[in-house]
Amino acid sequence: MWLPLIGLLLGILIGLLSPVEIPLGYVKYTAIAILAAIDTILGGVRAQLEARFDLTIFLSGFIINAAFAALLAGLGDLLGLDLYLGAVIAFSIRIFDNVGFIRRDLLDVYFRRVKRARDATG
Amino acid sequence: MTVARPVVRPRLPWWQVGLTVVLAVGGYFAATQIRNELEIREHLRIPSTRLNELAIRLQKQERRRASLEAAVGELRHQVAVLEREAAERQSGVARMNREVSELRALAGFIPLEGSGVVVEMRDSPRPIEPGDDPNKTILHYTDIHAVINDLWAAGAEAVAVNGERIITRTGPAAWARRSSATRSGSRHPTPLSPSATPRACWRICSAPPARPRFCGRLASRYACRGWSA
Fold it and tell me: Which residue of chain B has the CA closest to A27?
């Protein structure tokens, strides 16, 4: 599990040290991209815990979700509506759902290990 | 006999690779976003969620400033017009004041003194021969009148005859009495004291450019005193 942590640290370092600045008008899109990334990461972890991880679905989900959310935000800007809030709400619900499933999966794994240990000792 | 087993390197799980990529991208965006947010809070002292409100306020202020600048330009134009009108009015008033001053001087309302030209006129000292017309040897008011007209035409600002100011309304009788020249032109019956000698004095305060021209003409026709070329 060290590789994802290295990737995370590398991304943070590049973001902090690079001179690239995002224009103020695009801050909203960056925030949605971050939400999409969190949603994708949690979804990938959940899929891995449930032994149904697919790299293609994982990466395409990240890209398509982020692009669609950005498109929604841009459309909202054109229409004068806060349509990006819809993306934010959807991503938030998915994030909480994934967190809940991950919690259950981890607890399930934990209880299974405890039970297996009890069976081995008993 | 031992069978050599092929070395199997542990394969990197794909899910870790994908997670790494997404985490790197997400970390990059998150770090950039945090940096931007901190800069916004540091410089603008508001969160980025209030940027729209700030932009609207800024646009309103810019529109207001533009309208105020337009108003300032209009007011400056009006001030320039008023200043020009005031200057024209002042120049007009100054011109009118000059004209009034000249007219007041001509009307005798302004006392004038200064250097000028004194013209002395007297009866001819030639004795009258028998048969001569005595009118040709004595000073008539018409002679004085002609000299006064010459002085006015030469640009004199003020004229006096024996100390009597001649103005536009002065009739010949007034200075004729003072100068002892009679309307009929007859010789004065009594000898005159020097102060009362029939003398016509014109004190001229004309402008310097007009003086030489006038004095040149005057000197050629009359005995001039008080002026030196």
Answer: B33
